[in-house]
Automatic annotation (TrEMBL):
This is Asparagine--tRNA ligase. It is an enzyme of class 6 (ligase). It comes from the Bacteria. Its EC number is 6.1.1.22. Belongs to the class-II aminoacyl-tRNA synthetase family. It catalyses: tRNA(Asn) + L-asparagine + ATP = L-asparaginyl-tRNA(Asn) + AMP + diphosphate + H(+). It is found in: Cytoplasm. It comes from Ectobacillus antri. GO terms for molecular function: asparagine-tRNA ligase activity. Coiled coil: none annotated. The lineage of its organism: Bacteria, Bacillati, Bacillota, Bacilli, Bacillales. The keyword Hydrolase does not apply. NCBIfam families: asnS, PRK03932.1, PRK05159.1. Homodimer.
Length: 430
C-alpha cells in the first residue's frame, strides 16, 4: 500500500511504501535509523540487519543526506516518537542519490541559509513554520466563508496608491506609469459596495528600506471590507478572526508547535474580546514607563508597541490615532475630528502590529478634502470618489499581515522564516 507519512496512522501493523527523502541517518552496529521526510511529515525508519539481509542493510547504511527513495516497511506505534509512529523497514529503493548536500546537521550562518533558502525549507523547523502558515491560510478561508464573506481579487498593478507613492515600486504599463500594489483596500471598498462583505488574500509590496525583523519587501495581506459596518463592529470581527486563527493553529498544528518549542500556554488564552486603549491613553502609559521621547502626534515605533503589548497577555487594540499620522481615507471621530475611527492590533510578546483597520470616510466632500490635503490627484481617485456618490454607506475594513501573524503564532524571531522565499532589502535570490 503506497501512502504518505501523514497518513501512516491509518495503517498500523500493515506494510506500506512511502516516497521520501533522507533527512538524516545514524547506525549502531546491526541497526540503522533513517530520518525520513516526504512533505507531509517526518518519521523514523528502523532497519535491522537480521531482518532485511546484508544487501538491503548495506544499501540503507550507505544512503546520503537528501537522497530520494521508496521505503517499504511495517507501521508501528511508538510512544517515544514525537510523531507517534515509526517504520520497521523491509526494503529500500533508491530513486536518486544526492551528493554533497550543502546544509548539514551542523550550525550554519543566516546568510548561508538564506542563500540556500530553496534547500533550507526542507528542514524540520522550516517545515513546521510553513505548515503553520498553511493552517492560518486554510482557517482564514474557512472563517470568512462561515461568516458570509465573498473572496475578491484586487489588481496587483495599479495606477495610484492608497497611501501615497513614497514606498511604491514603479513600473511602466505600456505608455503609462503603474505601481505594484501596497494594498488592495480601495478596490475592496468597491467590491464591498457590490457584494456586501468581501475579503482578499494576495501579495503586497512596500519599497521601504527597512532591515528590521518585522519587515519584508513583498508580503501577503488578508484584507476584509464590510458595508454597513461601523468602527465597533469592525473591531469585533477582527478579534473573532484572530481568536479563530489561534485556536485553529493550536488544534491542528500541535506537532509543529512542539517542533518549534513554542510555549502554547501563551496562545491558549487568546480568546475574544481583546483589551482596548486609546492613543491618548497609550501616550500617557508610555510616559509613565519612561518613554519621554514620544509626544502626542507621533507614531509609535517597535519599542513603544512592545512596551504596550507587554502589559497584556492578549493582543491589544490601540484606537483613535491622530488624523495627521493616518491615511486619508479614515473617518474622523464625529465627537473629536482630530482623531480617526481606527485601530492597530498589537500582538503579544513583541511581535508588533499585525492588523491595521478603520472605518472609512463615506462622505464625498470630506474625502475630496482629504485628497487635497494629502496632495493626491483627484483624477487618479475619481473612481474611488464615485463610491461616495452612488449609494454611499458606512463601511469599515482591515488588513492582517500574514507573515507577522505566522511569526507570532510560531514563536520565530524573524519574518524571513515565515514566507517560502523572502524578499528583503538586499535579497532577491533565490
Amino acid at each position: 500500500m503506497k501512502t504518505t507519512i501523514g497518513q501512516v496512522k491509518h495503517y498500523v501493523d500493515q506494510e506500506v511504501t512511502i516516497g521520501a527523502w533522507l533527512a538524516n541517518k545514524r547506525s549502531s552496529g546491526k541497526i540503522a535509523f533513517l530520518q525520513l521526510r516526504d512533505g507531509s511529515g517526518f518519521i523514523q525508519g528502523v532497519v535491522v540487519k537480521e531482518e532485511v539481509g546484508e544487501e538491503v542493510f548495506q544499501k540503507a547504511k550507505g544512503l546520503t543526506q537528501e537522497t530520494s527513495l521508496y521505503v517499504t516497511g511495517i507501521v508501528r506505534e511508538d510512544a517515544r516518537s514525537p510523531f507517534g509512529y515509526e517504520l520497521t523497514v523491509t526494503n529500500v529503493e533508491v530513486i536518486h542519490a544526492a551528493t554533497d548536500y550543502p546544509i548539514t546537521p551542523k550550525e550554519h550562518g543566516t546568510e548561508f541559509l538564506m542563500d540556500n533558502r530553496h534547500l533550507w525549507i526542507r528542514s524540520k523547523r522550516q517545515h513546521a513554520v510553513l505548515r503553520i502558515r498553511h493552517e492560518i491560510i486554510r482557517a482564514t478561508y474557512q472563517f470568512f466563508h462561515e461568516n458570509g464573506f465573498v473572496k475578491v481579487d484586487p489588481p496587483i498593478l495599479t495606477g495610484s496608491a492608497p497611501e501615497g507613492t513614497t514606498e511604491l515600486f514603479h513600473t511602466k504599463y505600456f505608455d503609462e506609469d503603474a505601481y505594484l500594489s501596497q494594498s488592495g483596500q480601495l478596490y475592496m471598498e468597491a467590491a464591498a459596495m457590490a457584494l456586501g462583505k468581501v475579503f482578499s488574500f494576495g501579495p503586497t509590496f512596500r519599497a521601504e528600506k527597512s532591515k528590521t525583523r518585522r519587515h519584508l519587501i513583498e508580503f501577503w495581506m488578508i484584507e476584509p471590507e464590510m458595508s454597513f459596518t461601523d468602527h465597533e463592529e469592525n473591531l469585533r470581527v477582527q478579534e473573532q478572526y484572530v481568536s479563530y486563527l489561534v485556536q485553529s493553529v493550536l488544534q491542528n498544528c500541535a506537532l509543529e508547535l512542539k517542533t518549534l518549542g513554542r510555549d502554547t500556554s501563551k496562545l491558549e488564552c487568546i480568546q475574544a474580546p481583546f483589551p482596548r486603549i486609546t492613543y491618548d491613553d497609550a501616550i500617557t502609559f508610555l510616559h509613565e514607563k519612561g518613554f519621554d521621547d514620544i509626544q502626542w502626534g507621533d507614531d509609535f515605533g517597535a519599542p513603544h508597541e512592545t512596551a504596550i503589548a507587554e502589559h497584556y497577555d492578549k493582543p491589544v487594540f490601540i484606537t483613535h490615532y491622530p488624523a495627521s499620522i493616518k491615511s486619508f481615507y479614515m473617518k474622523p471621530d464625529p465627537n473629536r475630528p482630530e482623531v480617526v475611527l481606527c485601530a492597530d492590533l498589537i500582538a503579544p510578546e513583541g511581535y508588533g502590529e499585525i492588523i491595521g483597520g478603520s472605518q472609512r470616510i463615506d462622505d464625498y466632500e470630506l474625502l475630496k478634502k482629504r485628497l487635497d490635503e494629502h496632495q493626491l490627484s483627484e483624477d487618479a481617485y475619481k473612481w474611488y470618489l464615485e463610491l461616495r456618490q452612488y449609494g454611499s454607506v458606512p463601511h469599515s475594513g482591515f488588513g492582517l499581515g500574514l507573515e507577522r501573524t505566522v511569526a507570532w503564532l510560531s514563536g520565530v524571531e524573524h519574518v524571513r522564516e515565515t514566507i517560502p522565499f523572502p524578499r528583503l532589502l538586499n535579497r532577491l535570490y533565490p
